[in-house]
From TrEMBL:
Signal peptide: 1-22
Lineage start: Bacteria, Pseudomonadati, Bacteroidota, Bacteroidia, Bacteroidales
Name by which UniProt lists this protein: Clostripain
Domain of life (superkingdom): Bacteria
Coiled-coil segments: none
Keywords for the protein's UniProt record, in alphabetical order: Signal
Keyword DNA-binding belongs to the record: no
Pfam families: Peptidase_C11
Amino acid sequence: MHKFLYYILPLLLMLAGATSCSSDDGPDAPPEPSVSVSRTVLVYMIANNNLGSSYHSDERDIQEMLKGVEGGKLNNGRLLVYHNRPNNNSAYPPQLLDITEHGPKELKAYTDAGGICSVSPERFREVIADMKRLAPADDYALVLWGHGNGWIISPGDIKSRSFGPDDSTWISVPAMAQALEGERFQFIYFDCCLMGNIEPIYEIRHLTDYIVASPTQLGIDGMPYDMNVPMFFKELPDLVQAAKNTFDSYHGSMNQMCVIDTRHLDDLAAASREIFSTLSRYPSANEINTLQKLGKYTYSMLRYDATIAHDMDQYMELLCTTAGTPDLLTKWRETLDKTVVYKATTKTSIDFPAFSITRYCGLGSYVICNADDITFREYDTLAWWTDVVSAAPAYSVK
């Protein structure tokens, strides 16, 4: 008996020690990584605003997601939601959810201590790292859920508007692009307004092959997740059908959608730069008034309501007509056809219901009317300005 204890006691002590070390991690220790799957889609949901507190859109969309994953529609994939909940505080911290056929499962809770909020670059990087650790996959995709305001930036102002807000804090598209630098997504779907314009799309082109977005405002319901989740998890994501599902879900009420192949955006930028390089004067007010308006940005602190989206094809047509360069327009349109995979529009837009939409190429563009427009809301800090628009001799900043 003593000989048996002589051999078995050390083994029992080792097991006890291992158990003790494991329990030291505590209940808040992060779960172990999961087995790798084919694709993980992360819905980055910013609902600590009126979308959550007033409309409860976050709750409805999560219910739609649960319906969308039924019957094996995840296709050996994972659907995660980073849920920045309304009335965010210690009782309702942001959480990372795994949306499964058996219901949502919390993978991690977050704290906003130290000034880190859900639209801070630090939180973006943290959540992406958690996604890769807790739901590793062959490839990843990102859905950005919240309010969108295109490329709008404001220096040193927490109300700098591009994507958000978490309470009153937003993140600009350049800051988002920098936060996600080095990441690669199968696609990025903007379930928010005004992001289907060339400026924000060009800013994040290196993060993904495809972008789904709208250059104008969308209705409060956003996309139909029950219909689109299965599209995201096909072996090759069916983004055109997902965009069609969203467009059709509004049943003819005002909206616009597009699917962009970012692999042609550098060529589109080069063709656009050629056109801008011929521009020797600002377009006149009468010329600008002929352009199709798509989306605008309204904010009480602005000096005026800013039209930040005109139809890009018509804009390039105007510039080529002004400069007498029809050959450049033909080259540009050939590239546009490769870039815009899908586009759909109703006859009017939410921002300009009084104007019929007669031109819609799938991309919106900001139009510079005078010297003040170059620096308006830091437009001249965008990559699209630096790489493309600044080539115009007329826009040389003295």
